[in-house]
Amino acid sequence: MATKYGDFYPTKWGFPKALPDGHMPSPQQFMPEYLNDPSFYEKGYHLENVGDGGNFYWVTSPAGYDGGFVVTGSGVIVIDAPPGLGENIQSAVRSVTREPITHLIYSHWHSDHIGAASQFGPEVKIVAHDITRELLTRFPDKYRPLPTETFHTDAELEVGGVKLELSYKGADHCPGNIYIYGPEQKVLTKIDIVSPGSVTFMHCDVSENISGFYQAHDDILSYDFKALIGGHISRWGTREDVEIVREYWHDLLKYAEEGLREMSNAEALQGFVVGLGREYQMVGAENWINSIANYATEKTLTKTTSNGQTWPERLAGATVFTKYHAWTVAETFRTERTHFGYQKEGNGGPFYIA
Length: 354
Ligand SMILES: [Zn+2]
Description:
Layout: H1 38-43, E1 46-49, E2 56-60, E3 66-71, E4 76-79, H2 88-94, E5 101-105, H3 111-114, E6 125-129, H4 130-138, E7 149-151, E8 154-159, E9 162-167, E10 179-182, E11 187-189, H5 202-206, H6 210-221, E12 227-229, H7 239-263, H8 266-273, H9 281-302, H10 311-314, H11 318-336
Parallel strand pairs: 4-5, 5-6, 6-7, 11-12
Antiparallel strand pairs: 1-2, 2-3, 3-4, 8-9, 9-10, 10-11
Helix pairs in contact: 6-7, 7-9, 7-11, 9-11
């Protein structure tokens, strides 16, 4: 079918077109059976019971956005309201219970995960972090009503005897992004950090604080969970899924750091700008940071990992998204972490841009 922009929008100064030939296919474990079931696309959602106790559900959508809900006996607690799931979250709830939806928890303030919250109406209590309320007050959106109850560090939500532990450990993907844990069910929801089975979306899933993004992998593993609801894309996650991506991220960080040290000293920097002149210095700057990203990408993707396979064999999207991750990790490593020293007065000591 011919569409307005065809299959790519080319421009001389933009990104090159990606081709399947240049990439590895997603591993089989990233393509669960329900993706082949036409009813998934007709209904607009897929539902699975997760963890212990039989009352916690993971819901995903053809748009690749996930949420969850808990049936308490005194009402349903819904976690997130992605527009891509939209009102189908209500169909999913109705398919297992007649209890009303009484509570909605916002994992974080991002519109792509809670931008269908207004569908639940004013009777539903909305629980979120203080920062989420602050951000939604500052940037109001009629589709994202203000939270009715917020907390600062830790809180417990109890409905019908079912308890959920809410915790905030600091900025990671964004400020206000919380942990939502069902201790009886052993289900943890932490959105936009781990997309089970994949390297997650480009630029560390567009995260704001990369040190926090790394820390979140450790914090996720500090919970005793049987299922992780990660917000994307075709699976809920196991502990092993988190351990695997944590290893991937630490490989990438190691090589990004190595690339920075190799290419950011005075001598290497000269090489990137040699013969360009002041008027084309930005061309050298692009080549410098992209060379560091390429270094980290090459080293990460060709490495034999802990189980004897390469990352493209273990995680979906590795050959596609690693270069974006490498760029972000290298650039934030250079800004969020130590600078390895600084220029001495006058012309003394080594000059590091990173
Ligand atoms: Zn987000």
